[in-house]
Amino acid sequence: MMQIARFLGQDGEILEGVVQGDEVEEISGLDPMLKGGRRVGGKRKLADLQLMPWGTGRKIVAVGKNYLDHAKELASEVPKEPLIFMKPTSGLIGHGQAIVLPPSTVSKEVHHEAELAVVIGKRLRKASEAECVKAIAGVTCLNDVTCRDIQRAEGQWTRAKGFDTFCPVGPWVTVGLDWSDLRVQCRVNGVVKQNGRSKDQIFPLPRLISFICAGMTLEEGDIVSTGTPAGVGPIKAGDVCEIEVDGVGTLRNEVRAE
Ligand code: ZN
Description:
There is one protein chain. The chain is globular and about 50 Å long. It is mainly beta. The strands form three sheets. Strands 1, 2, 3, 4, 5, 6, 7, 10, 11, 13 and 16 form an eleven-stranded mixed beta sheet that branches. A five-stranded mixed beta sheet has the order 8-19-18-14-15, with no helix packed on it. It has a three-stranded antiparallel beta sheet with strand order 12-9-17. It has five helices and 19 strands. The protein starts with a strand and ends with a strand.
């Protein structure tokens, strides 16, 4: 297993490196499956780096109500087919960057949603489940931040889930991790709010990815997020929101008022 971080270089360029304990060793020339590459030497302290999100410039495809207990808490019917939506890449932020709440005149109810997400490493179009599995480059944590009041009011989810900073991803991507039964947890100010397991997803990843690419080509670098377990709830200014996926790590973001 290997953890690959993206981080900001001295001149504002985005670099990649292998995480080793509290250090990151820069690597160049990784292929889209996050394999290969050449270590270019020079270890940096993780604590000194601004980690950057994955998926910039690509698309983020997500799924609604993919855990039975979460569908129930929304008083929703359990979907018969995956319920797909997209989050804009303009909402991406990395580990350590702030989730910025819109003014209360716009939304009074912003929720966290802890999710396991994967980075796609191969172009997929009308691919079988087996081909889809082979195209998963790595696993990461994603917080599908949502204005619940706007989501309810509008029916369409794009605006509710599409605000700037509403898509924290990170802290890095883990390559070679079995994603089929991982704990997905959200903590707000250290208190556990969501605690699910990926094995309880209604539509597991192979089905989900295959369903998406039956109609929509998935490109290298796209992110697919797999839905959130029960326990979604509000975040407010001053909170610290943490999403942890077993074998990946903890994505931490403070919450700020605009
Ligand atoms: Zn979600």
